[in-house]
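Table S2 (continued). Query chain:
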Amino acid sequence: MRLFVIGVGIGVVAVGVLLSAGRGPASAQGPEGGGSVTARLEALEAREAIRMLWADYGRTLDNRDFKAFAQLFARDAEFAGGAGATAKGRDAVGALLERLLDTNIPNSKGRNLHLYFNESIDVRGNQATGVSRGGFLAASAANRPEISIMATYRDSFVREDGRWKFQRREIITDIPVPRQATP
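Corresponding output:
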């Protein structure tokens, strides 16, 4: 970075800053040497796209839109859910989740909600990994929200056809369903 100054009376006034488009360490490095501004911006955009992918995962399941849900996964994606539920391939993942939701919580469309929190994302070019926590709320018989499951999600992502997709999703159940009754 070059700074041009003009002296005015007793003080000095900066009249312009010329960025040397990647020339020199000041413009190529972030405050902690984290790479170029372009690379850091691309990583931020990737992390935001992955956050939207997580949100779309919950939204499509909550709406029972299994066609859109399947499109969130890479062509050769893997899914490893709780209780040994596994699938390989985009269409197989969509079919598995449709079967699981229809079996475990039938007639719940519009009466449930996926939540995500405590996420971390590590982007490495066109691949990324992430860990998040999640909860699934469903309406009880008394029409009150009830936590049905709490889980840890371990994900691998890939940029496929210009969009971030799940390459592998592993769900580790923290609070299983059905829960044990407490005395």
